[in-house]
Amino acid sequence: MPRTPQADGSLTVRLAEWASGLRHADLPDRIDAYATSQLISHLAVVRAGMAHPLGQRLVKAFGSPTDDCPDQAAYVLAALSACLYYEDSMYVGHVSHSSVGVPLAFRNEQGLTGAQLLTAMVAANECAARVTAASTLGPFRGQTAAHAQLVGAVAAVSHGAGAPVRRWTDAWGIALAAPPWSLRRAFLGSDAKVLSAAVPVRIGLDACRAAEAGLTGAEDILEHPGGLLAKVSDVASPEVVTAGFGTRWHTETLSFKVHPAGAYVDAAIDCAAELHGLLTPTEIDDIDEIVVRAARLTMVMDGEARPYLDRERSAILALNLSVAYNVATALLTGSVTADDLAEPATADPVRWALAAKVRLTYDPGLSRRLLAATAPLGEALRQAEGRAQEWFAAFSGGRAAPGVFPGGEPSVTFEHATKAIGSRIEVTLRGGRALRAERTHAVGSAGARTRRDHRAIARAKLAATGVPPDAVDALEHTSSLGAAELDATVREVLGA
Fold it and tell me: Is the pTM for the entire model greater than 0.90?
């Protein structure tokens, strides 16, 4: 059983005491199942990245994700998984770049069995998500929260190595000493974003090597007035770092990505894909207007990306966040895939002409539903309570509808976690015919349906990349694989 953390220890000490003692037998069946699906889905993300021109350039620059040097393999895996905005996320954070990629890279050096791999993943998930949740009310959220990968990389390596608590805390203290600070201009308007997870993963691994050699770090690096939470958040919630060990499993807040697009766009893609099946090619040519109703956060993210859209010269993240481009793509093709993030799709004049007909409008009901859910912000706002009121008003530009700020108590358990970023679409043809579709949440987002279907979603995602069915079947039983079987299966999947 995990060790009971000291009540008076620093946040990193208490987190390390719990996570270092976590064993596969401690994982509830539902958490083991989530972690297995997370592994399957993440391998699909890496493979999709490898097949894309940007991923191919990454492999040319940095080598193969099966490199025998685990540090280099972890770096490449993180870069590939960050390519397309196809990675899964949880409340809070896009942590899989480190929490899955790092134990995969170190599976041979550490001799990990399938059960040990899954346990290291969960330990890293929980550490990275908790620290990220404590700091999410601030300028760094989602992919820009590089500290999530610093925490996750250290936790993954340390757990797999069976490192003592002091080595965990020293490594975190070193890794978090100078967290990467992303610049929106580069992040949204260039290819530099693809290294946003790889760089902090490498820093985390270097910190582990340093701690193993005897270098020390500050134990109070999280909560100190000059520490991480004070510097990367506007409204810190340090209490969530250690809240509910063994009951608040952040791993079961996973949302599984179905489209390589921003989470705030996914439901609109689902709506457009539905309408694609109701429209003939002639009718698509006859579309007069496309109205997309969305929550305020969708509009904010779309607005940030718009200045960086330049057809085939667009940076991938700008395409990922563009409601117009993704809705037009799904109306035309019935889906959005990695191929839609490269030429010839991005140079298609028909697609861009259709995108020009999209009008994005605010829906206060969808905003209320979004903020009432666990992810992406509802739980954080409830946790911070009155401390977050002023932050939220500034974040929403003073335009939030009355009653949007969520009420209620923080969750005792995440067994019923939700993510509700919805959308409504109305397509009007020149003759006056109108078609409508609505989603309260995207396919694969946290909620009752995903709790039921996450394995099927993950399997389909990996199978779509061309992995042989027997390899997908083997991953279904990861917890029973020995070290040699695990290595052979991962090599087959990444090399297929």
Answer: yes
